[in-house]
Amino acid sequence: MIALRSLATAALVRGLYIVGKHVFRRPASAFPGAVGLALDPDVMSFCRRGKDVVVVTGTNGKTTTTHLLASMVKARDRFVITNAEGANLPAGLVTALCRGRGRIAVLEVDEGYMPNLLHTLQPKLVLFTNFAPDQIERFDDGSKLLTFIKKRMAEAYEEYGTQLVLSQKDEAWHSLFVDAPYVLRVPFGTIDVSHGSVYLQGTRYALPFRRRFELENAELALRAAYAMNLEPTHIERALSDVRPVEGRSTMFSYKGVPLTMTLVKNKSGFDALFQAMSDEDRPDRVLIALNDAPSDGVLGSWLWDVNFSFFKTIRPERLVLSGTRAFELAQALYIQGIPRQAIWIAHDPESSLERLLEGLSPVAIEHEARRKVHVYVNYTAFAQYRKYLTSVPALSSSLSPRPAVVSS
To answer: For the Lipid II isoglutaminyl synthase (glutamine-hydrolyzing) subunit MurT C-terminal domain, which residue ranges apply (predicted)?
Structure first.
């Protein structure tokens, strides 16, 4: 009876996903799974049966690493199950497992949920990207979470033979699992930032990345591929077609002006972004939107530690702040030497984008030297701005400038 209920629920999840994608033309990555879990809490376990699961978790880089590894598996097996949209909470995992085809599932899993899901997913392999204490603060006690992760990993190793592949550079994970017998000692690769490649076990793999943190994610995915006995020919075939992941850094056109929106979740994300930025990448206009919803993490603990003095070096012609933490962000920038008169504050996607692009036009951008417009957002701000940018009509822009007032 239970199996019949799970079977029916899985079919419903698949149906809801198909309707959402093809009728309403929306990703429907979490809603079908949420319905499924409400009807049958065992549906994730049911849909996982008969599949070899690989889990990718950590603070940053999960989506890119998952995307790369899933592409490599697909090059060999033709089909792979994955949550490509980055829906890494239980509802998103259920949707992926119920709708997907394939023997292997490569799943991005939120690091806070991961230890409690190990028993349900029973993964063969777990990849840890990196660890940022500021993001772990989303949970009541970060140190207890790490201890819990180690305990559950040991149990999964004993019960299911789960093994672990660690990021090359992250000392926190290496110190936590220093004596763990389940850590796979796959030889590290050599990263070549200038050529966008990783050299691993006698083969050089070319990638469509030029930033070190992206290549570090790729190096982890490559070592996991070797641990899964994927052949270099399959890996090379996948990498020849791979593209940067949609959603984490996305191009939009706002009223004819091109802009790049990037998800940046924490201090380490900002620092990596600034350090990797070449002269050609440096933006002329910048918008930062940060919210403090529960899914955004504990913002105040790291906001003051980001090296925003980067903006003193590049001197963008316009710097706009938005989101629920805009005023605190403005204070952090001012303390690091960004003049008050250089900072603008707006309170919603429409007004902040108008302020950002004031004085620019598609014609001007086309005929001037290329102007780079960048928008940096955290989780909930990303959803707000994406929703607005995909719905805004092509109208002309008009707003009179007014600088922000930042109290000292």
So the answer is: 263-382
> Do residue 233 and residue 378 come from a single domain?
no
Q: What tokens does 258 get?
A: 């091109």
Determine the Cα–Cα distance for residues 239 and 223; give it in Å rounded to an integer.
Answer: 14
Give the chain's domain count.
Answer: 2
Collapsing DSSP to helix, strand or coil, 391 comes out as coil
Cα 146-270-300 angle, rounded to 5 deg: 65
Q: HSE of 14 in the Cβ direction (CA atoms, 13 Å)?
A: 13
pLDDT of residue 406: 37
SS3 content of the chain, % helix, strand, coil (to 5): 45, 15, 40
**Which pLDDT score, from 0 to 100, does residue 313 have?**
82
The ranges of the chain with pLDDT < 50 are 247, 367, 369, 394-408
CB-CB contact of 93 with 54 (8 Å): no
Name residues whose C-beta falls within 8 Å of residue 307's C-beta, 6 or more positions apart in sequence. Answer: 270, 271, 274, 336
